[in-house]
Write a structure and sequence with these properties.
Elements: H1 7-12, E1 18-20, H2 29-37, E2 42-45, H3 51-64, E3 69-74, H4 80-89, E4 94-98, H5 106-111, E5 115-120, H6 123-132, E6 136-140, E7 146-147, H7 155-165, E8 170-173, H8 179-187, E9 192-195, H9 197-200, H10 209-216, E10 223-226, E11 233-236, H11 239-249, H12 254-261, H13 265-271, H14 295-320
Parallel strand pairs: 1-9, 2-3, 3-4, 4-5, 5-6, 6-8, 8-9
Antiparallel strand pairs: 7-11, 10-11
Helix pairs in contact: 2-3, 3-4, 8-14, 11-12
């Protein structure tokens, strides 16, 4: 299987157009290096890292892989300036930014020869990305886990909308956890995929084993978009989710929801494995994930599923001729 003519593989110099989401509390150097070593693009998730922690993970990445990799930086992080300086000083080649204006850091990063990708959830921000000079965009539908777009546009609708209005290399995200879904996203106009939940529940993910098992057992309808008055976040249902839903149904203000959320909820749930009181961020695709696998097996499944889906479509086409 060759993706040599693919703009995403050429942009990052990778074998497969598969990017691992830079997820908080999941995307450390073990996961990112495993993805890169399998031919995808691994990303360190700087959103849950203090500057000194990011520095350690960058240095370990350099030892763990000689393949391309990058760092994901949510721009709402209060320490983002320091994170960016570490990224520049350590010679990181690829940065994915999200949750903020692409114009703020793109010129600085590109002046240091860094490839910049920005995550968006609507065509308005896609246009801002093009104006800011980013190298590619990730269009993330609301099926995705964690922080999400307020528009609640599904990936199946978002990708054609962005493709129609934007010429940048396009990566699809949200609800992609199989080779079949990867092919579907590319049929809609994407040139690559960013996968979060599937890698969050891998053996190499730094998420707690209890969280992985609980999320992998999720049933249909057990994730919902919550906390819309703060930052829309897709959560797996648990005791904390019930508290949030009760508060939201009662008309809770932004301030009271922020107080309920407090600090460290995502760490408590994802990293510490507190299934009752933690914020369990995961995508809808968790309902399709039934076991915790190593990244190498995940890649085998993705590529086999992609090829099998391609072959099925080819047979359908021949049957209609």
């Amino acid at each position: 299987m060759s993706f040599k003519n693919n703009r995403i593989t050429r942009l990052f110099d990778i074998k497969y157009p598969v990017i691992q989401g830079g997820m908080v509390w999941c995307s450390g150097w073990r996961l990112a290096s495993a993805v890169s070593n399998c031919g995808g693009l691994g990303l360190l998730g700087a959103g849950s890292m203090h500057p000194e922690t990011l520095l350690q993970h960058i240095q370990k990445m350099k030892q763990a892989t000689d393949k391309p990799w990058g760092v994901n930086v949510p721009l709402l992080n209060p320490g983002v300036d320091e994170l960016m300086q570490i990224i520049i000083s350590e010679g990181v080649k690829i940065v994915f930014t999200a949750a903020g204006s692409p114009a703020k850091y793109t010129p600085l990063l590109k002046s240091h020869g860094i490839t910049v990708v920005h995550v968006i959830a609507n065509s308005r921000f896609a246009a801002k990305c093009e104006a800011a000079g980013v190298d590619a965009i990730v269009a993330e539908g609301f099926e995705a886990g964690g922080h999400n777009g307020r528009e609640e546009t599904t990936t199946m609708n978002l990708i054609p909308i962005i493709r129609r209005s934007n010429t940048l290399p396009l990566i699809a995200a949200g609800g992609i956890g199989s080779g079949e879904q990867m092919l579907a996203a590319m049929a809609l106009g994407a040139e690559g995929v960013q996968i979060g939940s599937l890698f969050a529940l891998s053996k190499e993910s730094s998420a707690h084993a209890v969280f992985k098992l609980y999320a992998a057992g999720a049933r249909e309808g057990e994730t919902m978009l919550s906390l819309k008055k703060i930052t829309p976040t897709r959560l797996l249902k648990n005791a904390f989710f019930d508290l949030v839903k009760t508060a939201e149904d009662s008309g809770a203000t932004q301030e009271s929801l922020s107080l309920l959320l407090g600090r460290g909820r995502a760490k408590k749930g994802i990293f510490d494995g507190d299934l009752e009181n933690g914020e369990l961020e995961i995508g809808q695709v968790a309902t399709l994930i039934k076991e915790v696998k190593p990244v190498s097996d995940i890649f085998d499944d993705l590529l086999n599923g992609y090829m099998q889906a391609w072959q099925r479509l080819s047979l359908l086409q021949k049957g209609n001729e």
